[in-house]
Amino acid sequence: MFYRINSATPKSDFELLISFKNGIRKKYDVKPLFSKWPEFKTFYTVLGLFEQVKVEPGGYGVSWNDNLDLSCNELYQNGTPLEGDSSSP
């Protein structure tokens, strides 16, 4: 099952606010990926890149460029539900 994305909003400290088509909203912290995938360290060196996040066609993920992307399922499964959000998975 794919948890398709409606919108992705970059927040401070390399966090994304993700709104899914099923009404669920989650926060996703990108920082842990810096140690797993060296490509993500680019956010430190290319100022403003993180803020250029876009939802991929169909809502199946988000991307910044050809080397930096995240799948909708990664964001859904490893994102943190927003505090006070009455939506449940």
Give a description of the structure.
By secondary structure, this protein is of the alpha+beta class. The protein has a single domain (5-81), classed as NE0471 N-terminal domain-like, CATH 3.30.2020.10. It contains three helices and seven strands, in the order E-E-E-H-H-E-E-E-H-E. The strands form two sheets. It has a four-stranded antiparallel sheet, covered by helices on one side. Strand 5 and strand 6 (69-71) form a beta hairpin. The two termini are 13 Å apart. The model has no long low-confidence stretch (mean pLDDT 94).
Topology:
Elements: E1 5-11, E2 15-20, E3 25-29, H1 33-36, H2 42-45, E4 54-55, E5 61-63, E6 69-71, H3 72-78, E7 80-81
Antiparallel strand pairs: 1-2, 2-3, 3-7, 4-5, 5-6
Note the main attributes of this structure.
89 residues; alpha+beta; NE0471 N-terminal domain-like; 4-stranded antiparallel sheet; 3-stranded antiparallel sheet; 17% helix; 31% strand
Q: What would CATH call the architecture?
A: 2-Layer Sandwich
Unreliable residue stretches: none
Which fold name corresponds to the CATH topology?
NE0471 N-terminal domain-like
Which outline best applies? Answer: globular
**Could you estimate the helical fraction of the residues in percent?**
10-25%
Quick one: biggest sheet? 4 strands, antiparallel
Number of helices: 3
User: How would you spell out the order of helices and strands?
Assistant: EEEHHEEEHE
What do we call the CATH homologous superfamily? NE0471-like N-terminal domain
End-to-end Cα distance:
13 Å
Look at the structure and give the CATH class: Alpha Beta
The count of strands amounts to 7
Percent strand: 25-35%
- Average predicted confidence as pLDDT: 94
**Number of structural units classed as domains:** 1
Using the CA coordinates, give the radius of gyration. Answer: 12 Å
Biggest β-sheet: strands ordered side by side in the sheet: 1-2-3-7
Structural class comes to alpha+beta
